[in-house]
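Please fill in the sequence for the structure shown.

STRUCTURE ENCODING:
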């Protein structure tokens, strides 16, 4: 099958037509023949995976039961109505499916006499086995093939698909006809050495087997091949990008000089940890090659990434270059500015702040200091890379919490200097599997040690009925002259309600702790008022600081030993972990108390239990990735995470590693993909992958 045919619209295929094609494109993005081939079944039915009612047991695992709808109807309940359906399996045994939500929609979804496959967890109430809110697939007459042990593919659907008759049966028929007519023309894009070395099924066979598997073994091999292929082309993009970057000249630095030595030996009141020294050594080595550095420093909250960044900037200054330090928000930029002044004033190094909210006079003074080179260090938001900002000689660009910047914003930094060295920093520990996909073209340093003397923060989960006990604990700590944060969630959609909740909580705390000072910061306050409130807390004049946002409590206050998070079930796991990192910054034992609603979703429970179980940011990130999936880990828009239709970085790490090995081996053998044996692979890559902007969390 030629590539041109793969790009043909599906509307011209037998059994599709214009109306169905429009719905298919809208619902699932299926527009071309290639899209159709990669429109993978969401599950399969065969005799080995279908249970009979008499064999059921209560279980936390989902099972599939196939049956015929016998009776259905809306049933009144104590609190609200529910929809109940009774279905009968092929042996004549019956069970229930129950819906408490969407009752009026779901009651129209079934007809008596229909054959349906129900998927869900089984519970027993009295004599009845039951599934609550099960997934379901309507089966057509041809699904009787189940009885002969054939594996039947069930496809993603939806109301719109059902309306135009694009049932699983219809999709199977379209795919079957496509393979029957054109299947033999499908070409293998991988060279023999890759399929043989990694034991891969032929691509054409895998595509047929994913839709029409002969048995479970063939299905497993087809999945392995298609997952490998998805990962492979992403890794090839990364491998080629890395290869290309090897030729990217950057400022060549000599050894560190007086500024770096004085900062590390005299200004810092502590010795760098082993992990910080390793990260700094990586930076120094990179900047001496004559090639542009592109390094990511990963480290947990409080692990000391900023110190490494400051040392890197002093290394740049020793070599006559300026540095830019970009943060995603004004509050973080201002905080970094304050910290940098504390570190660099003793060295006589001028630091300039550039943010959007400055007055015209402040901005003009900052621009002049940066352009003239008088200020070797500039700190700011994306205002640093806007038009009108010029550097005398920018040699080092540092991007903090870099996943929150768009690719285009980061790329703008290049225009401000002669390919300045790039040091990207993140306090969101990234699971290894995701790092291989997001940062496969970058060099990575991991700061996995905490500064000495720090004790792990003790985390406790409490519900409303134990609030009195929590207040008593808080009072005890305040009486020992320690300080506390109380944080409320602030979600854009319900900002007014959330703010009211925080202000009301602040007033209650004032009443409850009359003999202590309680203060509040929130986004509606003027910047000066916020700064003043945070300065009072830092100076120890405030005992309890109530805040509505995660980032606004980003001050480093070693005497703050208690972090109380209200409505903790509403925060994401990485947010909770970041918040917890605001305490535990001294040698005094610190505590994080998660105040959560008694009613929690299964996901919220999993998040909160992970917080109680571990303080290891990398373990937290693994759990977060499993709960949210890769697409949402950073937010799909920001990360540019490629669409994975069948592969899953959380479950397929072993396949990802092999695909990465294959891609990097290919580029090592044939950097320009000019070998005739790689012609089909190169054509496929250029057509479907190379033209895509590499949107991952890298620069470029």
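FILLED IN BY: designer on duty
SEQUENCE:
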């Amino acid at each position: 099958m030629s590539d041109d045919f793969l790009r043909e619209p599906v509307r011209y295929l037998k059994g599709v037509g214009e109306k169905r094609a429009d719905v298919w494109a809208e619902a699932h993005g299926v527009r071309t023949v290639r899209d159709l081939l990669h429109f993978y079944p969401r599950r399969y039915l065969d005799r080995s995976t279908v249970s009979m009612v008499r064999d059921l047991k209560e279980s936390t695992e989902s099972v599939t039961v196939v049956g015929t709808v016998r009776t259905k109807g809306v049933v009144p309940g104590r609190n609200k109505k529910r929809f109940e359906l009774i279905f009968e399996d092929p042996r004549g045994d019956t069970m229930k499916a129950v819906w408490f939500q969407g009752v009026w929609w779901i009651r129209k979804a079934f007809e008596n006499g229909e054959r349906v496959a129900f998927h869900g967890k089984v519970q027993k109430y009295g004599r009845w086995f039951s599934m609550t809110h099960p997934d379901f697939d309507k089966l057509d007459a041809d699904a009787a093939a189940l009885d002969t042990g054939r594996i039947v593919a069930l496809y993603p659907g939806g109301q719109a698909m059902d309306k135009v008759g694009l049932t699983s049966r219809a999709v199977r028929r379209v795919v079957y006809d496509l393979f029957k007519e054109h299947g033999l023309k499908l070409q293998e894009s991988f060279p023999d050495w890759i399929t043989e070395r990694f034991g891969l099924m032929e691509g054409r066979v895998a595509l047929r087997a994913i839709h029409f598997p002969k048995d479970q073994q063939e299905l497993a091999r087809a999945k392995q091949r298609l997952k490998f292929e998805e990962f492979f082309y992403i890794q090839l993009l990364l491998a080629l990008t890395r290869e290309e970057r090897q030729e990217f000249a950057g400022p060549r630095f000599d050894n560190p000089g007086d500024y770096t030595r004085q900062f590390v030996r005299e200004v810092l009141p502590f010795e760098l940890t082993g992990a910080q020294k390793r990260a700094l050594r990586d930076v120094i080595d990179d900047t001496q090659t004559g090639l542009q550095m592109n390094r990511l420093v990963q480290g947990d909250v409080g692990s000391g990434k900023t110190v490494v960044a400051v040392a890197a900037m002093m290394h740049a200054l020793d070599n006559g270059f300026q540095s830019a330090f970009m943060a995603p928000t004004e509050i973080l930029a201002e905080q970094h500015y304050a910290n940098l002044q504390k570190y660099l004033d003793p060295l006589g190094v001028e630091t300039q702040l550039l943010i959007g909210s400055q007055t015209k006079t402040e901005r003009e003074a900052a621009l002049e200091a940066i352009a003239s080179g008088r200020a070797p260090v500039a700190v700011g938001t994306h205002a640093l890379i806007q038009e009108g900002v010029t550097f005398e000689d920018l040699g080092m660009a540092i991007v903090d919490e870099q996943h929150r910047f768009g690719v285009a914003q980061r790329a703008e930094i290049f225009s401000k200097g002669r390919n300045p060295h790039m040091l990207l920093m993140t306090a969101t520990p990234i699971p290894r599997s995701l790092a291989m996909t997001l940062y496969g073209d970058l060099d990575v340093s991991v700061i996995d040690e905490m500064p000495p003397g720090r004790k792990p923060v003790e985390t406790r989960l409490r519900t409303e009925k134990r609030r009195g006990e929590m207040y008593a604990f808080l009072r005890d700590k305040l009486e020992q002259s320690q300080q506390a944060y109380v944080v409320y969630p602030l979600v854009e959609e319900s900002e007014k309600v959330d703010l009211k909740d925080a202000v009301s909580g602040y007033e209650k705390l004032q009443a409850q702790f009359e003999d202590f000072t309680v203060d509040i910061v929130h986004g509606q306050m003027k910047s000066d008022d916020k700064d003043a409130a945070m300065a009072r807390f830092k100076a120890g004049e405030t005992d309890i600081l109530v805040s509505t946002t995660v980032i606004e409590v980003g001050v480093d206050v070693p005497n703050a030993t208690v972090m109380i998070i209200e409505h903790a079930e509403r925060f994401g796991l990485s947010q909770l972990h970041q918040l917890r990192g605001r305490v535990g910054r001294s040698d005094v034992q610190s505590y994080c108390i998660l105040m959560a609603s008694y009613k929690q979703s299964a996901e919220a429970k999993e998040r909160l239990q992970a917080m109680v179980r571990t303080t290891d940011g990398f373990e937290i990130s693994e759990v977060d990735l499993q709960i949210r999936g890769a697409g949402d880990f950073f937010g799909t828009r920001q990360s540019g995470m490629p669409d994975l239709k069948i592969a899953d970085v959380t479950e397929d790490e072993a396949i990802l590693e092999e695909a990465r090995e294959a891609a990097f081996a290919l580029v090592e053998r044939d950097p320009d993909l000019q070998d005739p044996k790689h012609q089909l692979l190169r054509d496929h890559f250029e057509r479907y992958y190379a033209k895509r902007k590499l949107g991952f969390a890298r620069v470029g």
